[in-house]
Amino acid sequence: MPPRRMTWRKTDDGRPVKAACYVRMSTEHQRYSTENQIGVIQTFAKQHNLDIVKTYQDAGKSGLTIERRSGLKALVGDVSSGKAEFVVVLVYDISRWGRFQDVGESTYYEFLCRRQGVDVCYCAEQFENDGSIGSEIQKVVKQSMAAEYSRELSVKVFLGQANLIRKGFRQGGHAGFGLRRTLLDETGAFKQELRYGERKSLQTDRVILRPGPDDEVERVRWIFSSFISGKMLESDIASNLNSLGIRTDLGRHWTRGTVHQILVNPKYVGDNVWNRRSSKLGGRSEQNPREAWIEEPDAFTAIVTRDQFELVQRIIEKRHRRLSDNEMLAVLRDILLRRGQLSGLIIDEEENAPSSSCYARRFGSLHTSYQLIGYDTGRDLAYLADNRRLREMHPSVVSSAIGQIVRSGGTVQQMRAGLLSVNSELAISLVLCRHNTLPSGASRWTVRFDTVLCPDLTVAVRMDKSNTEARDYFVLPFVEMTTEHLKLKEANGAGLDAYRFESLDFLGRVSSRTPLREVS
Length: 520
Description:
Layout: E1 17-25, H1 34-47, E2 50-59, H2 70-80, E3 88-91, H3 94-97, H4 103-115, E4 119-122, H5 133-166, E5 179-184, E6 190-194, E7 206-211, H6 214-229, H7 234-243, H8 256-264, E8 272-274, E9 277-278, E10 286-287, E11 294-296, H9 306-318, H10 325-339, H11 344-349, H12 356-363, H13 366-372, H14 382-407, E12 412-416, E13 419-422, E14 426-433, E15 436-437, E16 443-448, E17 457-463, E18 470-477, E19 485-488, H15 494-497, E20 500-501, H16 506-511
Parallel strand pairs: 1-2, 1-3, 3-4, 14-17
Antiparallel strand pairs: 5-6, 5-7, 8-11, 9-10, 12-13, 13-14, 15-16, 16-19, 17-18, 18-20
Helix pairs in contact: 6-9, 7-8, 12-13
């Protein structure tokens, strides 16, 4: 098929062709400022006799999804409805159009424009978006690179934030009653106390938590001691605080739920906890399993003692331990019937109900509790069950690998979960890769490499579509891997599929000893 002729180049009477420009500014680099983009676009328009009649803009917006990008949505809407007065859209480069994780989404929005006779032109790219084989190949490569950049950036940001948590620095969120956020400079020296809504202005500054005013600190200690004494429940404590005219850190009345949140929050004993919930690559915020949390004990100055805090947790857990699973679920159904929806805070507000943390401990997670009573949160939570199943399966895969090595005459030492030292000379990491199905129906697996210990080989166990059995194995040498994680498809080309094996038998060949003949 010959390349299509660009619509905006059909005019030959010398009159300028009407065009629109689309610019998007995220936050990662100055060269992507809207001013720089517009400057390049205007130069391109002048060189090609184009008259820019409308500008669409998304400032400070992620390129991962279209949901919060009102500028791009307005552009596509105007074109699709036939209201557009232009025949070409000028964009700085592929990444400004979007870093969609499914590269087909970029092509889809282009198609909606082209169907209405409007072309999309990337001014700073070295190819012409004319549908030719060469341009299509380059475009797909650039779209994939833009998507991969976001994935890599997400991993790096997560690792960086996790490292800061372990060093005792706070990552987002308000301090809470009795605590204050304190700003430190790069040397660790005090700069100022941050008020609610204030943020650091320098990238090298750090935030920690410190005890707040003495009266608030004493109130927090009173809350714990009153609860431990058994004389007051959360609702009694809330009523007492409200009667004294004391407000929460957000200036609101106290409730059973807000008191309960203080009693179960480890920051009051000085622990720094992060990643309880997360939102990856523009997705919805999800509650993470306990093992995914990043925790650093004794990172801050404690307000209450650890003995007090742990005693409170035992009391909270014990007071509803007498309830059977069915009784706890019946209480949850009653709350749903009366309130119309469920959340951790709604559950914690209930006077005679188990707390949200009790449900999470009893049933594995709060979302599992919801599923057991048929409550649909509108989110696909199947991955939580898959992840739990994979965690349970991982020890048996490691055991099978150890057995394969030992039967082949090799020696093996388990350094930690999933990391094996073979013959005291080869480090092998075993990871299970959950099967994911894209909206298009295609299969994907993500391999995450241990960038801290850097094992010699990573054995990636690809799961089948049900995520119950191993499908195959990829043996990936660390020296060949240039990213912190790898996306695998059904077919990955000879370069990657050369590392694929049907079973763990290859471990025997890797670990077996070959006797050397004595040379005379």
